[in-house]
Every structure is written in C-alpha cells, then in structure tokens.
Amino acid sequence: MGLEEITNRSLQYSSGRQVCNDFVSLTQEWLRKLQAVSSLRGYFRETNRSELAAFISYAMSFPTQFQALVDTFDVLRSGIPNFCAVALALNELGYKSLGIRLDSGDLAYLSNETRKFFCIVEDEFAVTGFKELIITASNDIKEETIDALNKQGHEVDSFGIGTHLVTCSAQPALGCVYKLVEINKHPRMKLSQDIEKVTIPCKKEAFRLYGIEGYALLDIMKGENELAPKEGQRLLCRHPFSESKRAYVVPQRVEQLFKCFWAGNSGLPQEPLPSLTEIRERCKAQLKAMRSDHLRGLNPTPYKVSVTASLYEFIHSLWLSEAPVGELR
Fold first, then answer.
1. How large is the C-alpha radius of gyration of the chain?
2. What are the CA-CA distances from residue 75 to residues 31, 160, 257 (Å)?
3. 116-164 pLDDT, tens per residue?
C-alpha cells in the first residue's frame, strides 16, 4: 500500500559486485527527475504511491524480468511514470526492463502515447534501448481488434490473446478475476478507464431482496459494519457507479447470500457443505425466483446489483482519493 511497507530495500547490481542499499530511494530520485522534465509535464504530476510500491517490490523480486501492468489507476498519469522510474533505477544497476502491459482503455492511443513517453525518456537521460521497450496489449483481443488497431496506427509489439483463442462464440467464456478489496483492514479498489473493471472496495455482505410477487428484485451489497436490510423496511438502493440510477425498495423477504463454508483460522462458525442434490435443488429454486425476462435468451433484462447509500458514498470518496489529478497545458 505504501513505500514504508518495503522493509528490505537492498538490491544487488547485475554484475554481482555491488549492492544498492536503498533501491526505494533510488527509484524516488528517478521519479523526481522525470517530474522535472519539461516535455513530460503535460503527462503527469503526482503518481499513485501504492502502485509505485508494488512496482518496486516486483522489480526487486524479478529484476531481470520486470514487466508492469500499468492500468490499475491511470495509465499515463501514474502507471507509465511509475514504471519508468523503476526501470531507470534498474538500468542504473545494470538491469534492462522488459516493458509494460495495457489491459484496458483505448489501446491505440495509449500505446502511441506510451511510446512517445519512452522516446522522451531515452533522449532526456541517454538510456539506450528505452524507446524499444515492449508494449503488450491484452483485454479480450480478437482478430477484429487487431485489424482495427492496424488501421488506426499503434505501437503495440505483442498481443496477449487468451479468451478468443480457446473459446468460441457458441460456448463463450465467463470472465472472472479475483481482486483484493482490502489489505490489512485498509480498503483498496482498482481503477480503470473501463468502468466494468473498477472494483468495489472493502469487506461487504450481500443480500437478495424479494418483492410482493415472490420474485427477486435485486441484490444489494453493504459495508461490513452497516445494518442488514430488513423485511418491510424501505431501503435506498444505488447503482455503484451511475449517480442517477437509484430506487427505494421495500423488500417482502430478505435472503443473506454469503455463508461461511470454509472458515480457515478466522474463528467464524462454519456450515457443512451441501450435497450435490441440495445444490441442485437450490439452483432450481433460485431460477424459479427470477422473472422470465431476466432468463430469456434474446435481450434479457439485466438483473440489478446495487449498493447501499453509505457504500456508494465511500466508493466515490476512495475513488477520488486514489485517482491521480492531471494537468492540462
């Protein structure tokens, strides 16, 4: 989460003859040098410190294989400057970084701007080969995507193709990614130019709210310390990211969705795992509780997943505190 959490700060030179006693400070020094370059001031001012700490930690573990995913917060205002600072520090110790990966946003624009950034760094600091660092692009890449990028013009060197290589449209894949929402009781969230990739921070509890007709109206998430929704009690439900999408709901039945089946060392009460028959019957019951328009094959009505008003306010407060502020000139 921060540079202060990096306890072992030493890194051996690639030659093996010397040791840099404080690689963290060396990286910070390079970041200050980048901030002082006049031609880069239009790109960024301050970068995200937790991202910088993550890049440094990774580089110290894999100094010969340093490649960074740069779109966790903001590609050009944070990810690329942080990567360059670490890469320049590694270069001072005799290591050459591999490059960066883009996994969201306008891949043509971001790759072109990234290459410009690399060229400025090489010219400004006389680091041979920096402008040739590899730019990799992913994010559901398919043939049409590559064709469109080629027509627009881009600086991508390699494409990470997974989903569309091993699946077909008749049997599509369900894309699920595990993201941390809390570290040492500090809420964390991933930011992205693609709104569907922005995560909802902190520990949460989820409930399914049912209406008068017995159908599920929506699922709602609340913070761990908030009161649970109750039957017959009006509740404001909000879309996590769209300010205008909100509704009051008076649930006739409330079902808690999270149950603990694997407690580990948490000390929480643990429920016995259901049998296959029980799982099958629950699945059937849940499908019966859904309106038919949610289940139709063509143009189904999206099922709503909401957050409480308190969680909505917290999400956007943390978002503003984590997102780097740009500067236009």
1. 24
2. 15, 18, 36
3. 999 999 999 999 999 999 999 998 898 889 999 999 999 999 999 888 7
CA torsion angle for 278, 284, 288, 293 (degrees, to 10)? 140
DSSP symbols for 48-95: -HHHHHHHHHHHHH-TTS-EEE--SS-IIIIIHHHHHHHHHHHHHTT-
- Cβ atoms 58, 26 nearer than 8 A: no
175, pLDDT greater than 80: no
- The CA dihedral of 36, 94, 8, 47, to the nearest 10 degrees, is 30
Mean pLDDT of 240-259: 94
Burial of 63 (0-12, 13-18, 19+ CB in 10 A): buried
93 closest CA partner among 186, 193, 10: 10
In this model, does residue 325 exceed pLDDT 90?
A: no
Rounded to whole angstroms, how far apart are CA atoms 11 and 284?
A: 57
Quote the distance between the C-alpha of residue 157 and its chain's center: 23
CA dist., res. 74 & res. 50, Å (int): 13
> In angstroms, rounded to a whole number, what is the distance separating the alpha carbons of residues 240 and 199?
10
Phi, psi of 216 (to 5 degrees): -70, 125
Is the four-CA dihedral 149, 150, 152, 158 of positive or negative sign?
A: positive
How many angstroms separate the CA atoms of 262 and 264, rounded?
A: 6
Partners of 222 in the β-ladder: 205
Helices and strands in the chain: count of H runs, count of E runs:
9, 14
Alpha helices in 100-162 (DSSP H): 107-125, 143-152
